[in-house]
Write a structure and sequence with these properties.
Layout (H helix, E strand, L loop, with lengths): L1 H9 L2 H32 L10 E2 L2 H8 L4 E3 H4 L7 E7 L2 E9 L6 E11 L3 E11 L7 E11 L6 E4 L12 E4 L1
Parallel strand pairs: 1-5
Antiparallel strand pairs: 2-9, 3-4, 4-5, 5-6, 6-7, 7-8, 8-9
């Protein structure tokens, strides 16, 4: 630790020892939090268990999701009002979503692929992968794997990904329309 070395040169051995202990303790906490975070992410991104089914708490919401009218990422939809597509189909009791939205001019793109675990009147829980590439800037790559909530609020006719600040501190609004 740099501050510990400076203190040692100045002859303050006690302060140097305290700084080294603080540094070590902080690193242990940081590493423990990182390990816990990685373990939780890995557990959430597991493939479906045989016999797993989507829990349907609202059949109307399920039908809206199955007959959705596409998806958008705000960085791409600024340039064009055209929406991407989302295919929703039942696979062995689980509703599977697969979709994308691409910029008409330029490389921006968002994709999603995964399963709906539960659907409620105004929200659903999606387990899978969401990838944003080259949006809003070329070279940006935001990959999310885990379980995420999409929620429709107020009078909105779309579900919005609730964990929208996952990469680079940017707010990525991924919306699925009904």
């Amino acid at each position: 630790c740099w501050s510990a070395r400076v203190d040692m040169v100045a002859g303050h051995k006690r302060r140097a020892a305290r700084a080294a202990m603080c540094y070590g303790r902080g690193m242990r906490h940081l590493l423990a939090a990182l390990a816990l975070s990685l373990a939780a992410t890995a557990a959430l991104a597991q493939p479906p268990v045989a016999g797993e089914r989507t829990i349907v708490n609202d059949r109307t919401a399920l039908n809206r999701l199955r007959r959705n009218s596409g998806m958008t990422l705000q960085w791409i939809s600024f340039e064009s009002p055209a929406r991407g597509h989302v295919v929703a189909q039942m696979n062995g009791g689980l509703l599977h979503l697969s979709g994308s939205h691409s910029a008409r001019s330029g490389p921006g793109r968002v994709t999603l692929d995964g399963d709906v675990l539960r659907i409620n009147p105004r929200s659903f829980f999606f387990r899978g992968r969401i990838v944003i590439t080259d949006a809003p800037d070329r070279g940006r790559n935001c990959v999310r794997e885990g379980t995420y909530e999409f929620r429709a609020t107020g009078q909105r006719r779309y579900w919005r990904l609730q964990d929208f600040e996952a990469c680079d501190g940017l707010a990525d609004y991924v919306d699925i329309y009904y």
